[in-house]
Amino acid sequence: MSTCVITGFGAGIGRATAIRLAKEGLFDKYALIGRNEKDMNSTWEEMTHFLSTDRIKIYHLDLSKPELIPAVVEEIHNEMGDISCLLNIAGYTDPKSLLTTSLESFELTYKVNVFAPFMLMRECVKYMKGGGGKILNVASTAGMTPRPGWLSYASSKASVISMSQTLTAELAEYGISVYCVSPGRCATKLRKRLAPDEDPSTIMQPEDVAEVICNLIGPNECCLDGQNIVIRKAVK
Amino acid sequence: MYSLVLLSGGTGSRMHNTVPKQYLLLAGKPVIMHILERVDLVNEISEIIIVCTDEYISSIQLMLNQYGIRKPVRFAPAGETRQESVYNGLSLVQTSDVIIHEAARPFVKTEDFQRLINEESRNAMYGLSIPFTVIRGHDYVEGVLTRSELLNVQLPHKFETQLLKEAHEKARSEQKEFTEDASMVFNYFPQTKIKVCEGMEYDIKLTTRIDMLAGEQIYKEFFVRRK
């Protein structure tokens, strides 16, 4: 049995990916990690149109508390069996310039965007070592190019890119492939905080990113791990 | 089912290092964990007995937890000699068959353990042809050895537990010292067939600093499963 663990599935890219995966039936089971009850239930309900309810389970966890992750991953393994895929999609942003960024805000951004994916990878790999699998981290083009006023978010996403590339080499021995995608402007709630005046209909949609993610973690992908894959879409 | 006795009592003196080689980092991971991670995936091995000095037990326990090793692990005290260390490890073995391995030999794949286990003979070892000429002597040549008759003794080995225990008891009572177990069993039980399985070039023992350098390359070449 193969289980896919997904964070950030309540909205945006995570939601679009979870629903697409449910439609495609790529994995036997899905462990969904999140905390916003309303969003989570909405995605869960959508997924149940394609999968029986015993194949999807929600695990309540606030990713700003990464120290709680080991217990949750152990619970997932005990209840859903060996883990074969981890999708670190959840993200947080509080865009501010250097002089207005508080330590608390910087810390919270790093906890959700860096520490939580790190802990999830560390704990899931313990259960992926035997059979191999795939890890995909969602970074951002903000992690590659300078964006004044996005200090904590941009630097945290740069860290995600670097972690992914480092672990590609380290985890190859276990047959675990690590992917990193950096979406450009995408119509999500997070983007709304970064660029509140932007018309979301004029930029890339979460479903576009989900399509790329599903292709990468699907059985036919064979050579794009270890790279930072930029996802952009030309929009009229 | 098999118990695995993993010898990890080396002091690292030939590496000129204060940390024994089995605890040095190879590809970012302690040498001993390379083999423990792979053994953890071999179904026929029911438990691991690590033979080491007391001072390393807590560090190893921490690593076992960090690397998510699931098999039960027990510890036996390292002896003054390799033979004594094997004896100490053997004394904890309750399974009918045992595999002997060394932590300083990290380059054995899961399928290599499997091949040894699947070998029909209950007593078997890995051996590799010697690719160079060997002579007997020190300051002067004292004799010639026939290369085609020689084998490089590799690990792991597997034995019937009772047979190996008896061989060790005999060696102890005679105060004889053997550098590995196949020759000991052969010495006391020459009628017992010890099968030699074709060894692996990459199965080197990390002894000197240059072995660590070579080891990094072996790891990349044979153990990193990049597509």
Question: Any key phrases for this structure?
Answer:
heterodimer, A: 236 residues, alpha/beta, Rossmann fold, 7-stranded parallel β-sheet, 7 helices, 43% helix, B: 227 residues, Spore Coat Polysaccharide Biosynthesis Protein SpsA, Chain A, 7-stranded mixed β-sheet, two-stranded antiparallel sheet, 25% strand
How does this structure look, described?
The complex is a heterodimer of chains A (236) and B (227). Chain A is globular, with a radius of gyration of 17 Å. Chain A has 236 residues and is an alpha/beta fold. Chain A contains 7 helices and 7 strands. In chain A, helix 4 (103-128) packs parallel to helix 5 (151-171). Chain A has a 7-stranded parallel sheet with strand order 3-2-1-4-5-6-7, with helices on both faces. Chain A has one domain (3-231): Rossmann fold, CATH 3.40.50.720. Chain B is of the alpha/beta class. Chain B has one domain (2-223): Spore Coat Polysaccharide Biosynthesis Protein SpsA, Chain A (Alpha-Beta Complex), CATH 3.90.550. Helices cover 32% and strands 25% of the residues of chain B. Chain B has 7 helices and 11 strands. In chain B, strand 8 and strand 9 (141-144) form a beta hairpin. In chain B, helix 5 crosses helix 6 (181-188). Chain B is globular and about 50 Å long. The model of chain B has no long low-confidence stretch (mean pLDDT 94). Classes of the chains: A alpha/beta (236), B alpha/beta (227). At the A-B interface, helix 4 of A face loops of B.
